[in-house]
Amino acid sequence: MQNQKSGVLLLNLGTPESPATRDVRSYLKEFLNDPYVIDLPAIPRKLLVNGIILNTRPRKSAEAYEKIWTQEGSPLMIHTRALTEKVKALFQKKASGTSVKMAMRYGKPSIEDALRSFKDEGVNSLVFLPLYPQYSYAASESSIAEFERAQRKVLPGAEVRIIEDFFAEPGFIESLAATLRPVIEQEKPDALMLSYHGVPERQLLKIRNKPETCCSPGCCDRWTRENEKCYRAQSYETSRRLIQTLDWPESKTVTAFQSRLGRTKWVEPYTDIVLAELPKKGIKNLVVASPSFTADCLETLEEIQLRYRELFLEAGGERFTYVPCLNSRDDFAAAVASWVGLKV
Predict the structure, then answer these.
(1) Closest Cα partner for 238 from 128, 135, 129?
(2) Domain check: are 82 and 222 in the same one?
(3) What are the C-alpha distances in Å from 57 to residues 49, 139, 275, 295?
(4) Nearest to 6 by CA among 159, 165, 164
C-alpha cells in the first residue's frame, strides 16, 4: 500500500466513568446487554438484564468500585492509558510515524471513536490488540466482532492485523515471571495460586474455532491444535509456561477460575472453593496472581485482594500476598510494542 500510515489500537474491557451508582448502571447496561456476555436470545436477555439485574446489581457493584477507586480514577483506565503512552513512546523513540491509541470495549473511549481519530490522521494500516492474554468468547470474540463492525463503518479500506491472544508469548510469560519472582523469594509461600477469570463452560464451544474436545478428562493437560482456542486450555498453558520460567514446582501450583455468576456451570476448579480448602491441606502462606488480566481492576483489587484474602484467612490461612498485574511495566510495554510491529 502506497503512502501507508500505520496505527496501533490497544483495547481493554472497560470501566464506569465513576463509582457512582448511575455511572455503574450505565456501564453494566452496555456490558451485560452484549449477546457475547450473556449469551441468551435477545428478548430473554433484555428481560433478565433490564428487568432484574439492573434493578439490584448497580448499587452493589458501585460499593465494590468505591473500594478500589483512586483520586486519579479507575485503576483499569489509569494502567491502560499508562501502557498506551509507554508503547507510543517506544515507537516515537524509533522515529516511527505509527499512531498508538487505546479504547475500551464498553464505555469510553469507544472503538469507533478511536477509529475516527485514526481516520482523521490518515491511518490506512492498523494493528488491533485486545489486552486479554487468553482467547474467550465473552471478551476476545466480542471485542473482535465490535472492532470489525466499526472498522467496516469508519475505515473500510484499511489494511488490518488482529492479534487474538498472547497467552504463550515469551514476552508475556517473562514479564509475569519478573513480577512474581521477587515476591516468591521474599514470601517463600507454601503454594502459588494462579486465578483466571472464569467463563461459562458452554461458551468454550461457541467460539469461531471451537475445540474438538472440551471439558473431558485430561483435555487441558496439553495445549494442542485440537484445543488451541480453548480458554481453559490456554489458561493452563500459561500456568505451565510460567512455572517453568520461574523454576517453580507444579506440585506447589494451583490453577483456578474466579468470578462465576448464576447457576450455570462455569469452568472449574472455582477459586473461592479452592481457597477455602487450602488451609486444611497445610497451605497457610499463599501467593496469588491473575494472569488473565493485564491491568488491575475490580476483579483483582476488590475480588482477589480484598474478598479472597478475607476468605482465605477466615479458613485458617496465615499469609495472603496478591501480586499486581503487569499494568504498565516497562518490560510488558516493550513486549506489546514488539507484537504490534516495533522493530528493535
Answers:
(1) 135
(2) no
(3) 10, 20, 25, 23
(4) 159
For the chain, state the CA radius of gyration.
Answer: 20
pLDDT tens column, 150-189: 999 999 999 999 999 999 999 999 999 999 999 999 999 9
- 210 and 145 within one domain: no
Residues 183, 162 share a domain: no
CATH number of the domain that 127 lies in? Answer: 3.40.50.1400
Q: Are residues 159 and 70 in the same domain?
A: yes
Helices within the chain (DSSP H only): 21-32, 42-48, 54-68, 75-93, 111-121, 142-154, 170-187, 231-246, 271-277, 309-314, 330-339
CA distance 291 to 239: 8
Q: Per the domain annotation, does 1 fall within a domain?
A: no
- Give the number of C-alpha atoms closer than 13 A to the C-alpha of residue 106, restricted to the C-beta side: 23
Helix (H, G, I), strand (E, B) or coil at 12: strand
Summarize pLDDT for 103-128 with one digit per residue, the tens: 999 999 999 999 999 999 999 999 99
Q: Is residue 61 part of a domain?
A: yes
Please compute, for residue 321, the number of CA atoms within 13 A of its CA located in the half-sphere on the CB side.
21
pTM comes to 0.95
Q: What is the pLDDT of residue 327?
A: 98
DSSP readout, 213-281? Answer: S-SSTTTTSS--GGGTT-HHHHHHHHHHHHHHHHT--GGGEEEEEE---SSS-BSSSBHHHHHHHGGGG
**Please, what's the largest Cα pairwise distance for the chain?**
65
- Domain-embedded: residue 88: yes
CB 336 within 8 Å of CB 83:
yes
The count of domains in the chain is 2
Q: Which three cell numbers stand for residue 122?
A: 490518515
Candidates 93, 58, 9, 117; CA nearest to 330 is: 93
Virtual torsion, Cα 268, 270, 276, 282, nearest 10 deg: 40
With respect to residue 344, please indicate whether it lies within any of the assigned structural domains: no
Give bridge partners of residue 257 from the DSSP assignment. 196, 270
